[in-house]
Write a structure and sequence with these properties.
Blueprint lengths: L1 H4 L4 H7 L5 E5 L10 H4 L5 H8 L20 H25 L4 E5 H6 L3 H9 L9 H12 L11 E5 L5 E5 L3 H11 L2 H4 L4 H13 L3 H13 L5 E4 L4
Parallel strand pairs: 1-2
Antiparallel strand pairs: 3-4, 4-5
Helix pairs in contact: 8-9
InterPro entries: CoA-transferase_III (IPR050509), CoA-Trfase_fam_III (IPR003673), CoA-Trfase_III_dom3_sf (IPR044855), CoA-Trfase_III_dom_1_sf (IPR023606)
Keywords: Membrane, Transmembrane, Transmembrane helix
Protein name: Alpha-methylacyl-CoA racemase
């Protein structure tokens, strides 16, 4: 829209050079015919795009109900810059075939909403009928469904834990089979298959809190040799 205001719309530029690849990154994309133009021309920042895409509510953490935007301006980068870069690469490829440039139009709010695909798919997994789901997977998916987002630190299998020596380990047992191995090595597995996420989380906090970091580093090595891809590593702070 900036070039349009200066008197250089895409059709004028392509008339001068048909091989030009024009890239437009805006908050809400470009209006189509008969659409309300004011909606697309609204100002916005990263937090606004996250909110309107529906993704901001995932960043509530495990205790606070107030959404907190991530510090890495994820909407601008992952919802704007990355799709634009991919679009340019595709346009370059097509230009090699046709000799004609393209317009790459990126709306950040639309781009960032695409990132919630994995989370929404996870919710669908947790809605499977028990009769068609192995018990270990059913338990894992039920826990996932209880979390606002099971990758935001609210799930016991994907979060950080403080150790006895006041250090931290990052546990990434995201898949059901890895989560099962986490329970087998740290708690009473059979008992906790019957428990809700709150009980499991509290018990794991206690389990990690009574051991030193070095123990978990060693445990991670042992588990790795057992063929279990369970990530337990030291959490480094700046």
């Amino acid at each position: 829209m900036c070039l349009d205001r200066l008197g250089f719309p895409p059709e004028v530029l392509h008339k001068a050079n048909k091989r030009l690849i024009l890239t437009r990154i805006s908050g809400y994309g470009q209006p189509q015919e008969n659409e309300e133009i004011d909606y697309y021309l609204r100002p916005g920042h990263d937090i606004n795009y996250l909110a309107e895409s529906g993704l901001l509510w995932l960043f509530t953490g495990e205790t606070s109900g107030r959404p907190v935007p991530p510090a890495n301006i994820i909407a601008d980068i992952a919802g704007g810059a990355f799709p634009a870069a991919i679009g340019i690469l595709l346009a370059l490829y097509e230009r090699e075939k046709t000799g004609v440039g393209k317009i790459v139009d990126v709306g950040i709010a639309d781009g960032v909403s695409y990132m919630s695909t994995y989370f929404l798919a996870s919710c669908q997994v947790s809605d499977q009928k028990a009769s068609n789901t192995p018990f270990s997977l059913m338990h894992w998916s039920t826990l996932a469904h209880q979390c606002s987002s099971f990758v935001d630190g609210g799930a016991p299998f994907y979060r950080t834990y403080e150790t006895k020596d006041k250090k931290y380990v990052a546990v990434g047992a995201l898949e059901p089979q890895f989560y099962a191995n986490l329970l087998k090595h740290l708690v009473n597995y059979d008992y906790f298959l019957q428990c809700l996420i709150i009980s499991i989380g509290k018990t794991l906090i206690g389990s990690f809190g009574t051991r030193y970091l070095l123990i978990f580093v060693s445990l991670a090595v042992i588990i790795k040799f057992l063929g279990v891809c369970l990530l337990i590593q030291q959490f480094l702070s700046c």
